Amino acid sequence: MKKIEDYLARSENQYLKLYDESIKHPEKFWTNIAETFVWKKRWDKVLNFDFDKPEFKWFINGKLNITENCLDRHLSTNPDKTAILFEPNDPNSKSEKISYKQLHSRVCRFANVLKSKNVGKGDRVCIYMPMVPELTVAVLACARIGAVHSVVFAGFSSSALSARINDANCKVLLTADGSYRGSKVIDLISIANDALLECNSIESTIILKRINSNIKLKDNQTWWHDEIAMVSNECEAEEMDSEDMLFILYTSGSTGKPKGMVHTCGGYMIYTAYTFLNVFQYKPNDIYWCTADIGWITGHSYIVYGPLLSGATSVMFEGVPSYPDFSRFWKIVEKHKITHFYTAPTAIRALAKHPVSLVENNDLSSLKVLGSVGEPINEEAWNWYDKNIGKSKCPIVDTWWQTETGGIMLSSLAGVTKDKPTFATVPMIGIQPILLDKDGKEIFENDSEGILAIKFPWPSIARTIYGDHHRYKNVYFSAYPGYYFPGDGALTDINGNFRITGRVDDVVIVSGHNLGTAPIEDAINLHENVVESAVVGYPHDIKGNALRAFVILLNDKLDLDMQKEIKDLISKTIGPIAKPDIIQIVPGLPKTRSGKIMRRILRKIASGEKENFGDISTLLNPEIVDQILLNS
Ligand code: PRX
Q1: pLDDT tens for residues 341-386?
Q2: Residues flanking ligand 1, CB < 6 Å
Q3: Cα–Cα distance measured from residue 294 to residue 133, given in angstroms and rounded to the nearest whole number
Q4: How far is ligand 1, taken at its centre, from the CA of residue 376, in Å?
Q5: pLDDT tens-digit map of 568-622
Q6: Rounded to a whole number, what is the largest CA-CA distance in the chain?
Q7: What's the CATH code, domain 63-490?
Q8: Looking at domain 511-630, what is its CATH homologous superfamily?
């Protein structure tokens, strides 16, 4: 059997050579990578694609089960190696090491629980759980039996949860009685129960006892521990087609309801594993920690699948960086001798605000590689990270990618290709990024700025939006036909390194969370005293971007109660992360003659600009700009 190690780039020259091969002969290249995995049946053809439909199929008619590659495969070589190293919220609670053998057994056992609830191939299972090992077990148990997991971040509100359950028609909900987050205890089960009032498709709910509560179970609700006591820990892995659905993960769009991005088995498997090993240059005894939540794509691809496919030790942390104080991350690094640390710029900026002694009191000498993900990292944060955490000896991989791309698309390879502050730098092997000008023409010169697009498919591209292929086509393939359009702007330096300049649509990245402004406006407009609203992002020291809402009221008074009511509405409909920092009442909104809000102007006002609003002659009500400025 071929070994994936033989296709990893260990030097810049190897990267260039592999990149060249992957572009000139993509099918041959990805065949080599795919052959390093366990398949139940070999594929007939590597790739079929059509950007117009759009349709992408990888390893056609290949059969596999991703969990055999994440678990079973390692049992003959390394059964006792720690797969998951769990660090609980409370620093005085014991951490837990789960070996590959133990994880395999727990996954198989829970897979049997799901089967006992009548869950089979293709059924959707919603997972709304804290960051505890059972969450990983739940995800892999679904994959084991071919059920489609839809993980919903446990910070989302009941309405956000029910909307996602209903969109995917989930059959089973997996949740917990509560969760610990820093000094807070979150009443997860009440949120889930509220959501369930709106959901008809859920037949059973299985509840993990995490906070030892004495809640009364409702009809069709059972305890996790009772369920696993009744089944065996042996479960054959279901045979899946390479293009069968593996999971749905929701992400915000600039308009309308969240988009359930669909990822499939074969391509996602090989791409997450290959990028994990290449980007992080993980070696067998390394301890890798990605601080994301499994509720986001980063957790799916680079806490669960990428690392486990690679036989790595992946750390799962239940808590927050500020509890019991702002040295928690560094204490964990010292305690577990972390070698790879992958986090978000917003966390770095928040930590950098605190005395550096909180870092220096800990031994960080185990660290070899640092990573950044989720939003552009500014130079100051990059330098702080490099100097204080990496001690100027750890490469920093700034990884640009998306829920939709499934895996990392642009990044340096740690210690192999050069990093550069604020630049994601180079494309992954097999990825063909290009800058387009506003007319959609390719810009071939380096040192340019434009719209980022990808001109050839890669194995882990999301295949559709669940239940709405039309929207999938519209959002990602219509603005620039023949390309995948991610919605980001970018520039290149004279050497062709890429730097992401930010979103070019109405999605705002707040503390690394992707938020569409339209759903927030819809939530604000639910308030009986609100006539209309517009939400925009503006630069923020720690969060990267913060939100400002411009609101037209029925009667002109915005007192503190009403501010709170509006924020509560947003928390209830979306979640606390979507609350604006500033709510400003305005007599009107700048609108074009066709009635479209000119957000460009609001964005400038929110960023503190007082003039230079460009051409406002197409506004129906140009006088409104001065009126808004007067009160801002
Ligand atoms: O705007 C880009 C930003 O996050 C968006 C994707 O968000 P999401 O689907 O939630 O996935 C986040 C984790 C992969 C992108 O369109 N983004 C992500 N990583 C970076 C980034 N912006 C700049 N630099 C990055 N490294």
Answers
A1: 999 999 999 999 999 999 999 999 999 999 999 999 999 999 999 9
A2: 251, 297-298, 372-376, 398-403, 424, 486-488, 500, 503, 509, 514
A3: 11
A4: 8
A5: 999 999 999 999 999 999 999 998 777 778 888 999 999 998 888 877 777 888 8
A6: 73
A7: 3.40.50.12780
A8: ANL, C-terminal domain (3.30.300.30)
